Amino acid sequence: MEQLVLWGKFLRFGAVGLSGVGVDFGITYISKEKLLINRYISNSIGFVAAATSNYILNRIWTFESHSNHIFIQYAIFMMIAIGGLTINNFVLFILNQQTQWMKFYTAKVVATGIVFLWNFTLNYLITFSN
User: Fold this and answer.
1) What's the predicted TM-score (pTM) here?
2) 8/96 Cα distance (integer angstroms)
3) 81, 47 in Cβ contact below 8 A?
């Protein structure tokens, strides 16, 4: 039963993450392609906007948190997200710029998948632990 609950949270976290991917890629695209902001700054802006959106949705829907410590919880969530952002930018740098194995947005998809696992694990164990 406990594994079923964990699997449900994982799937919900994934659904929230997909909405976050839309926010992330949309804002990254606008920042990079239309506003001509540096690719890593654009990536960071998109990532932080998506992380904020994800926090709200995960708190309410995925983990059904009723903690009164919203700002502390948000700060922990964002610290984990910033760790994820570091991983995200590192993977982008290696796959796109350093080795040129992948185009920017293909590398961003790979980076997003890696960071998804990082974020779920740490948020499950730390941010939203009961």
Assistant:
1) 0.79
2) 34
3) yes
Summarised one tens digit per residue, pLDDT across range 59-113 is 999 999 999 999 999 999 999 999 998 999 999 999 998 888 899 989 989 998 9
Cβ pair 111, 97 in contact under 8 A: no
> How many whole angstroms separate alpha carbon 45 and alpha carbon 27?
7
In whole angstroms, give the CA distance from residue 2 to residue 23: 31
Alpha-carbon span 68 to 118, nearest angstrom: 25
Name the token pair of 36.
């001509």
- Which amino acid is residue 101, in one-letter code? W
CA–CA dist 85, 89 (Å, integer): 6
Hey, what are 29's tokens?
Answer: 């695209």
Tokens standing for 70?
Answer: 């919203």
For the chain, what are the domain ranges?
2-127
pLDDT at 47: 82
CB of 123 closer than 8 Å to CB of 83? no
Q: What is residue 128's DSSP assignment?
A: T
- 87 backbone dihedrals φ, ψ, rounded to 5°: -60, -45
